[in-house]
Design brief:
Layout (H helix, E strand, L loop, with lengths): L9 H8 L21 E12 L2 E12 L3 E5 L6 H9 L6 E6 L7 H6 E4 L11 H11 L5 H11 L15 H13 L5 E5 L7 H13 L3 E6 L2 H7 L2 E6 L2 E7 H5 L8 H10 L3
Parallel strand pairs: 3-7, 3-8, 5-6, 6-7
Antiparallel strand pairs: 1-2, 1-4, 8-9
Length: 273
């Protein structure tokens, strides 16, 4: 799986570029093996630390195939660490992780996953079209030109297709990063603050596009309104620990009828009653 991220070291790029990927057929063909799989994402008693600092502690949750979940938590809750564990760029000290029944480092998992990191940055010295065609080729997309043309038009990047990424605005760079995450029609889509840097009309276009995509979606955010627009269920974590899981409607019912859902979430995260 190719992951485009900000300030990647040469070691990071070496690891990512040598990761196995599908070739010759569309990765969406993997759907033929999903009939007996209940969960798109599974974490069981996962712990991860950075040195002596715990990032996640005994974290467990499951997302059914086709589920649309938000990973909701305050800054520093462990959301980005969770996504990096799910794509296999980090390994837990304790616990197990499965993507469609496979470990994150497996070829099957990596071919099935699309990932948008926070503050993503595609290859700056390549053009917008070159980025899309390169990643599409690595992902085994059958009709590279057709898929590239579709995403250029869908995300209104056509006028920038020959421009180097280094010349793009931050919003257009984010649109390209979203396109790279979905170029192979992934069965599991992991998004870290996907609406960052986008103006309101573009946010609406991206929300509509993501809503049409099939598959299991996990959207990491600390903003309840984003969770509400992109998902219908929530896994809430705080200080690296599981806090609550349920539908957004169930979350609303934890407050009074006239209480904003953001207030409910804030109370839960801070442990207030």
């Amino acid at each position: 799986m190719i992951i485009i991220r900000l300030a990647a070291t040469s070691t990071d790029f070496g690891r990512l570029l040598n990761t196995p990927h599908s070739s010759g057929t569309e990765p969406s063909d993997l759907s033929s093996g999903l009939s007996g799989i209940a969960y798109g994402i599974e974490l069981a008693h996962v712990s991860k630390s950075y040195g002596s600092v715990p990032a996640l502690t005994d974290l467990s949750f499951e997302i059914p195939v086709g589920g649309r979940f938000a990973l909701l938590g305050p800054n520093g809750a462990g959301k980005s660490t969770t996504l990096k564990l799910l794509i296999g760029s980090l390994r837990p000290e304790i616990g197990s992780i499965r993507i469609l029944g496979y470990p994150p480092e497996s070829r099957e998992s990596k071919a099935s996953v699309g990932y948008l990191p926070e503050d993503a940055l595609p290859y700056r010295m390549l053009s917008v079209r070159e980025n899309l065609e390169y990643i599409a080729a690595l992902r085994g997309v059958a009709d590279i030109r057709g898929r590239t043309d579709y995403l250029l038009d869908e995300l209104e990047l056509r006028q920038y297709e020959k421009s180097n990424v280094g010349r793009l605005s931050r919003g257009n760079t984010q649109k390209l990063a979203i396109a790279l995450a979905i170029v192979h029609s992934p069965k599991v889509l992991l998004l870290d603050e996907p609406l960052n840097y986008l103006d309101i009309p573009t946010q609406e276009k991206v929300i509509s596009m993501l809503d049409r995509l099939e598959g299991t979606h996990l959207v990491s955010t600390h903003i309840m309104s984003i969770a509400n627009r992109l998902t219908d269920s929530v896994v809430m974590i705080s200080r690296g620990r599981f806090l609550w899981e349920g539908t957004i409607e169930e979350l609303r019912k934890r407050g009074s009828p006239d209480e904003p859902i953001e207030k409910v979430v804030a109370r839960m995260m801070t442990g207030a009653t």
